[in-house]
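thought: user wants a sequence for this fold. calling inverse folding tool.
action: design(structure=
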C-alpha cells in the first residue's frame, strides 16, 4: 500500500497515523540521516582485512556481479563497476564516476550510498538482496571511507 493510501485509510478510520499529518510541513522523512563521522575513531578499518572479504564472498557479497572474470557480471556490464581490488573500485562505475569514493565523506560516496535503502540512483546493493549488509558491515564500508579510503 502506498503511503498516501495508508494515510487516507488511517484518516478514514480516525486512527492515529504517525507521518500522515499534512501540516506543518517539516520536510522529508528522516528515518536515516547519514553522518560522515567515523563511528569508532579508536578502531581503524582495513580494505584488505575488513572490506574486501565482504565484497568477495558469495553470499550477500558483490563479486558475483562486480568481477569481470565471472560469468554474466551484470554489475560490470551494466554498472560499469569492477570491485575486485581497491584500485579498480576507486576508478568508479557508469553512474558514480569520481563519486564512487569521496575520502572522508561516506555519505557522498556511491559505494556506501548504494548499500542503503533509497540510493541516489539505481537499486540497493547487493542487487539480489535482501538480505542486505548488516549494520556492522555497513559501518565497515562507512568507516573505511570516513578514515580516508586507505590502501591498508
Ligand atoms: C546480483 C548482481 C549484483 C550484486 C550481487 C551486486 N551488484 Fe552492484 N550493481 C549491479 C548492477 C546490475 C548495477 C547497475 C544498476 C544499478 O546501479 O542499480 C550495480 C551497480 C552498483 C553500483 C553503482 C555503479 C555505478 O557507478 O553506476 C555500486 C556502487 C554497486 N553496484 C556496489 C555494489 C556492492 C558494494 C555490492 C556488494 C555489497 C554489490 N554492488 C552487489 C549488480 C549487482
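)
observation: tool returned 152 residues.
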Amino acid at each position: 500500500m502506498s503511503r498516501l493510501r495508508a494515510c487516507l485509510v488511517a484518516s478514514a478510520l480516525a486512527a492515529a497515523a504517525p507521518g500522515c499529518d499534512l501540516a506543518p510541513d517539516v520536510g522529508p522523512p528522516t528515518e536515516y540521516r547519514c553522518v560522515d563521522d567515523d563511528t569508532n575513531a579508536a578502531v581503524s578499518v582495513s580494505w584488505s582485512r575488513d572490506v574486501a572479504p565482504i565484497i568477495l564472498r558469495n553470499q550477500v557479497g558483490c563479486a558475483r556481479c562486480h568481477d569481470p572474470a565471472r560469468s554474466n557480471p551484470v554489475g560490470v556490464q551494466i554498472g560499469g563497476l569492477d570491485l575486485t581490488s581497491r584500485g579498480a573500485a576507486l576508478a568508479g562505475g557508469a553512474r558514480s564516476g569520481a563519486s564512487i569514493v569521496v575520502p572522508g565523506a561516506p555519505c557522498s560516496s556511491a559505494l556506501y550510498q548504494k548499500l542503503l535503502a533509497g540510493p541516489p540512483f539505481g537499486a540497493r546493493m547487493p542487487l539480489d538482496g535482501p538480505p542486505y549488509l548488516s549494520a556492522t558491515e555497513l559501518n565497515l564500508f562507512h568507516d573505511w571511507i570516513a578514515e580516508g579510503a586507505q590502501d591498508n
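thought: summarizing for user.
answer: Here is the designed sequence. The chain has seven helices and no strands.
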